[in-house]
Amino acid sequence: MNQTIDLILSxxxxxxxxxxxxxxQQLDLILQxxxxxxxxxxxxxxxxMRVTDPLIRQQLAELAGPQPYVAQAAExxxxxxxxxxxxxxxxxxxxxxxxxxxxGAIDGALMAQNALLAAQSLGLGGVYIGGIRxxxxxxxxxxxxxxHVIPLFGLCLGHPSQQPEQKPRLPQAMVVHENRYPxxxxxALLADYDRQIQDYYQARSSNNKVQTWSSQIAGTLGKxxxxxxxxxxxxxxxxxx
Length: 241
Hints:
By secondary structure, the chain is α+β, with helices and mostly antiparallel strands. The chain has two domains: 3-164, NADH Oxidase (3-Layer(aba) Sandwich); 172-217, no CATH class. It has helices at residues 3-9, 24-35, 54-63, 69-72, 84-89, 98-121, 136-143, 172-175, 187-203, 213-221, 229-235, and strands spanning 46-50, 75-82, 125-129, 149-158. The chain has a four-stranded antiparallel sheet, sandwiched between helices. α2 (24-35) runs antiparallel to α6 (98-121) and α3 (54-63) runs antiparallel to α7. Keywords: Flavoprotein, FMN, NADP, Oxidoreductase. Residues 8-159 form the Nitroreductase domain. Pfam families: Nitroreductase (PF00881). Belongs to the flavin oxidoreductase frp family. InterPro entries: Flavin_OxRdtase_Frp, Nitroreductase, Nitroreductase-like.
């Protein structure tokens, strides 16, 4: 174990923040760390929107949930897949491929993970906001995003005013497989994990509920999520071929 691994393994989503701002030097380090992430084919196909306008923040908070911490956090960053910059440099660039969407999404996630880890190393905390995709066209309009740019997710950052319990992850044996994918799910491991998650939800200090992980994913995957997304992606010049 070392400080880096300790930091990674201590991750918690922070949704309550003090009113203290993030120092400009700290924010600059966080953004430098984000840009230091690996980049597929060195395309650097991402942009980060730093949202400081309180009115836009409040509108984004409503569109994303509502999730009030979007408006309350010291900083709110929106990570975007961006091929508009490439088309400005190379007007004849071939874009719209599904692979480019994957590149933008994967590299954006790598940048955001670097950013959050850097923030945590400075004593800050944060939470990712996938709800940014609940109303993607409205987010595009609010942030003035041109065609070939899509908002992937947001990231709230600030000084934590809570220390929530850590949510247990799946057993490593259910996630890491050697050479070949297993033919069967380990039902005993899943049952143990379901009990662990049920105990966690019942015992945690806020938002208690009676739910297992299996029932949670059944609820999430039992309906189509964001059925408008394909049409939105195509309208922004992604996923065309």
